[in-house]
Amino acid sequence: MVNSHRSFADRLRSTYPVIVDGAINTELARKGLRFSSRQWLTANLDAPRVVGDIHRSYAKAGAEVHIANSFSAARHALEPEGLGDFYELINREAVRLCREAVETAASHEQWIAGSISSYASGFDPRHLPPLETLSRNCSEQAALLVDAGCDLLALEMLFDVETAVAMIEAVAAAGVPVCVGLVCTVNAAGDMMLDVQSDAKSGAAAVRPLHSALPEIIAALAKVATPIVAVMHCATAHTAGAIEAIAAHWDGLIGAYPNVGMRDSSGTWCTSEAQSPVVFGSEALQWSRSGATLIGGCCGSEPAHIQALVSALQADTSSGLRS
To answer: What are the φ/ψ torsions at residue 320 (nearest 5 degrees)?
Structure first.
């Protein structure tokens, strides 16, 4: 907790949506760090000022939940790059940099989330370790992030049921709220799918309709303290539909933090045709009305998008704004 005496679970009882920050990794890329490179993996150690400045900007924009830069800091992500010896330091620095940046940038209540993702070398899910190893690594990282000061955990980039269930069960013992970030997309037939942006690397067997995947994922949440099911890393155009699909199976808390823009064929994030912050804020009102109680941005979003989101929600009487 930063500037607050209440827990994140208490904040969730408010009727006003919780504002989550925006992208970290595409912001790092905008500042010159290459995705999937050693430089990107070691940003917490080699570019701490850059990381801190990004968090600081989101705090000034009004974000309440800040996701620490631990997305690519699992053992199975670091060890293949020869960074296994820096595993604990990279994770602890992610939390420290985030906390120190936001507590000096804004006086409103803020909470720190530890990111644990399905990231594997080259963003290729085929490089993920066996589920037993994945579970062990996620459990270890969850305990480390909570010990470092995280108020909640964000499981990110969950694109298939088996991986999602393994990761959820692995972090349940951490005893903090867990936001489960599902990657959703719409296929050619118009069906809402649990999939990694229709990326063929996910494997045909992994691609399932969201409605058929949710029961198993929701069942795994039984032992989680304050679970949240979120749609993330998806197109803004599909976000409201994904929220509604989740709500049809889940009567608990729902989150939404979609992308702004998309990755091009070279792997570079492209925002040339992305929505403006004003459009993003306007669309976020629909996500709130559809049932999302945590709202922010994923890849391609910037502090300006979060500031526009805050302004739109504050101006909208249906958002249930509290003083």
So the answer is: 75, 40
- In this prediction, residue 261 has a pLDDT band, given cuts at 50, 70 and 90, of confident
Domain segments of the chain as ranges: 8-231
Q: Taking each helix axis as running N to C, give the angle between helix 210-220 and helix 236-247, from 0 to 180 degrees, rounded to the nearest 10.
A: 60
Distances (CA, A) of 79 to 82, 88, 101, 116, 181: 5, 12, 28, 16, 24
Integer Cα distance of 170 and 251 in angstroms: 23
What are the tens digits of pLDDT across the range 59-94? 999 999 999 999 999 999 999 999 999 999 999 999
Mapping DSSP to helix (H, G, I), strand (E, B) and coil, where does residue 36 land? Answer: coil
Instruction: Please tell me the distance from the alpha carbon of residue 46 to that of residue 164, in angstroms, as a whole number.
Output: 31
Instruction: Yes or no: say if 322 and 15 are a contact pair by the CB < 8 Å rule.
Output: yes
Give CA–CA dist 78/38, Å, rounded.
Answer: 9
Q: Which CATH superfamily is domain 8-231 in?
A: Homocysteine-binding-like domain (3.20.20.330)
Cα separation, 152 vs 220, in Å, equals: 17
Q: What crossing angle do the helices spanning 131-148 and 87-105 adopt, rounded to 10°?
A: 40
Nearest to 117 by CA among 145, 89, 98: 145
User: What are the residue ranges of helices labelled H in 128-247?
Assistant: 131-148, 161-171, 210-220, 236-247
pTM of the model: 0.93
Quick check: 302 and 28 in contact, CB under 8 A?
A: no
What confidence score (pLDDT) does residue 322 get?
44
Express each pLDDT in 104-155 by its tens digit. Answer: 999 999 999 999 999 987 777 888 999 999 999 999 999 999 999 999 999 9
